[in-house]
Design goal:
- The chain is of the alpha/beta class and 296 residues long.
- The chain is 46% helix and 23% strand.
- The chain contains 11 helices and 11 strands.
- The longest helix has 28 residues.
- The two termini are 61 Å apart.
């Protein structure tokens, strides 16, 4: 049985109008064209679908069945168009977003909550990686976009700053270093450290810079949360390095002092990272535009 959407729409229009002339008008077809199509519809169906009367038409039992299924098919088609349109305009879908520790800890939570509330049909899979890893993932076309430190070698990728990300040393009360005005990693590399859990992107970055100085950091303990990290420092267990925004959040709760690190790599910005905006999916393009436009 050969039927297309136009045939089904025409037949529904004829059934609703109660006449071939009225149905042709509703379907925006010439009467001759509509009559020829209707002839072909009934031929392909192999059964009469309409009873012709002097003042119009009525549906046969087969015609009632035909129009019932035609309405369902047309309705499903419109639903399919609407759902596909949601993907095409970026209001529905699932995104994979990569981000370094600082972006995940401080920048993204308040931003993503607002955006996800606006787009309830979008889901985001957020994966923490080092900035170097994220650049490699995006450059190799495995991922669309991420948030990285501007200290990373971005290769040929685009970086767009969206937030400051100064790293600071947090120091226990009465620690000798608490009286220093300025400190670099080389000044503290032999101290006992509080670290973040193994595999943490920020901790890996700091450890790599220590290794570049010829040292391996000595960790008294590694913590899985920033709150526990700050509590350990306040209790005098060791020193630690965190984004300044994290230190500010917990300084009212725990006793420690903070000093900005003077190393160039510690004065960072969080940046959007992607290959080419024109290559982004509609939903990702919406998200990155939102993150860029809401920079505080």
């Amino acid at each position: 049985m050969r039927l297309d959407i136009a045939d089904m729409r025409l037949f529904v229009c004829i059934a609703d109008a109660g006449s071939i002339t009225g149905g042709a008008r509703r379907a925006n077809l010439a009467l001759a064209s509509a009559s020829e199509r209707l002839k072909n519809i009934e031929f392909n169906a192999g059964v009469s679908l309409l009873v012709r009367h002097p003042r119009g038409v009525s549906l046969t039992e087969a015609g009632e069945l035909f129009v019932h299924h035609a309405r369902q098919i047309l309705s499903q088609r419109e639903l399919l168009k609407a759902e596909l349109s949601a993907f095409a305009n970026g209001s529905r879908g699932k995104l994979k977003l990569y981000a370094n520790t600082a972006a995940i800890a401080e920048f993204l939570p308040r931003k993503l909550s607002a955006w996800l509330s606006e787009y309830p049909d979008i889901a985001i899979e957020l994966e923490e990686r080092t900035s170097v890893d994220i650049v490699n993932i995006i450059a190799s076309s495995i991922g669309e976009a991420g948030l990285v430190s501007d200290a990373v070698n971005a290769q040929s990728l685009t970086l767009e700053p969206v937030a400051d990300d100064q790293l600071v040393l947090i120091i226990p009360p009465q620690h000798p270093l608490s009286h220093a005005d300025a400190l670099s990693l080389s000044d503290v590399v032999t101290e006992s450290f509080i670290g973040l859990y193994p595999g943490n992107a920020l901790q890996e970055n700091i450890s790599q810079h220590a290794a570049n100085l010829g040292y391996s950091l000595s960790f008294r303990i590694r913590m899985s949360s920033f709150e526990g990290f700050c509590e350990m420092v306040s209790n005098g267990i060791g020193v630690g390095i965190l984004p300044e925004s994290v230190a500010d959040r917990f300084q009212h709760k725990f006793a420690f002092s903070k000093r900005p690190l003077t190393d160039a790599w510690a004065k960072r910005k969080i940046c959007l990272c992607y290959r080419d905006r024109s290559l982004l999916s509609p939903a990702m393009k919406k998200l990155l535009t939102f993150l860029q436009e809401t920079v505080s």
